[in-house]
TrEMBL record, chains A, B:
Keywords: DNA-binding
Xref: Gene3D superfamilies: Homeodomain-like (1.10.10.60), Tetracycline Repressor, domain 2 (1.10.357.10)
InterPro entries: Homeodomain-like_sf (IPR009057), HTH_TetR (IPR001647), HTH_transcr_repressor_FabR (IPR050692)
DNA-binding region of this protein: 36-55
Annotated HTH tetR-type domain residues: 13-73
Name of the featured protein: TetR family transcriptional regulator
Species of provenance: Streptomyces glomeratus
UniProt xrefs under PROSITE patterns: HTH_TETR_2
Pfam family, one: TetR_N
DNA sequence: AATTCCAGCGAACAGTTGTTAACTGCATGG
DNA sequence: CCATGCAGTTAACAACTGTTCGCTGGAATT
């Protein structure tokens, strides 16, 4: 299926990824609007001008980072929202999944949280677009559930948006509690689960 | 009560406020970590070195901006959460209040949203502290309500946090819809109200 | 084997940044 | 009325920024 890349293309993609990785690392302590192109190339060990072979600007690089951070997340959302089992079990499993993801890709999560309302418009818009896609996917999944009978399309979208926002908020809290004690992380997990429980209760008594 | 400031102190506070205002303006199109001190003084029309008479750094200025943006908000929160009337009425009024606030102080709201997870640690911490204060105040207010009977302290704090997060999320959405049509803002208002309704329903059926 | 292509390099550019130092003029307190 | 305090100034600093241009070496194509 996939044609093996030539030495040329392979090397290019390698430095390109190195630039993305270095940028992501530098962005743990600043925001994208203050990230300099020279800063990134210096971290990789490459000439400043090499940057232009891969990205038009740091904003451009930011947009690609959004896709890297969020693009691969759709299957996870899908599997979460269509999981079976008791309601409480599903909530606990979801919260665990979030915690695990934050632990596996902390820099990605931080980047999204930081740039969602950050100073670079194209990046903001890309995040917005991706999150809207999530909300849409969750909406269709919810529409399939039998509990969603009698729900209007608008209300389903409202609920989906609430879920997506909640996921992100929980991820942020896990991130903040990351350098803290294990006890603090458990506290965050409990809180996140309780929030989802309350939303779930509200959902089951909606217009009845 | 308050001693009339001398000409000296008055002039100082004037340029100090001018610096804060100019910074807030510049921060509509970038984030704090990329805000230069010279940029701010240039916007005010004052020498770069004058900056140091008021702030140690731009991060310092950021912390004070947080207090300006959030400090004056406590009475509003208080009045909202202790308001009387039907549940739906209160929700609609709350959403209206948020919309009005965003319209009156868009730059402040944008600043908080942007720097809540932004690249400057002291500012992040100050916002966190202020939001925690809000959550605490809401918690006490909720504890006074008769509907909160049987609620644990932890769950009350969870609910309060959910409310605070929800307020902020709604404020952000109003902000994003600000350059859009009036119809779009109405859509946001409806969504925000529906979210609060769902949370309210969940609250009333909590552990019963 | 000869030729084209192109990722990365090195040097240079004008402009910007934060920070220091020593100053000036004016409101203030004795 | 005179001496002190201090908000704001001017000048200079080394360090850094994004972007340009022409170059080079080796992979890719023919």
């Amino acid at each position: 299926m996939s044609h093996t890349l030539g030495i040329r293309q392979a090397q290019k993609q390698k430095t390109r990824q190195a630039l993305l990785d270095a940028a992501l690392g530098l962005l743990e302590e600043q925001s994208l609007s203050s990230l300099g192109l020279r800063e990134v190339t210096r971290a990789v060990g490459v000439a400043p001008t090499a940057f232009y072979r891969h990205f038009r600007s740091t904003a451009d690089l930011g947009v690609e980072l959004v896709q890297e951070a969020l693009g691969s997340l759709h299957p996870m959302i899908e599997s979460t929202v269509t999981a079976d089992g008791d309601s409480d079990e599903r909530i606990v499993r979801t919260v665990e999944l979030i915690a695990r993801h934050v632990d596996a890709y902390p820099a990605h999560v931080r980047f999204i949280a930081r740039e969602r309302h950050g100073g670079v418009q194209p990046v903001r818009e890309e995040i917005r677009r991706q999150l809207a896609r999530f909300a849409e996917e969750v909406t269709v999944a919810l529409a399939g559930h039998p509990e969603s009978e009698g729900w209007s399309q608008d209300d389903l979208l409202m609920l989906a948006g609430l879920y997506v926002d909640q996921m992100l908020a929980s991820a942020c809290q896990f991130l903040e509690a990351r350098e803290g004690a294990a006890e603090e992380r458990d506290q965050v997990a409990r809180m996140a689960a309780q929030r989802l429980r309350l939303i779930s209760i509200g959902r089951h008594h909606w217009k009845s």
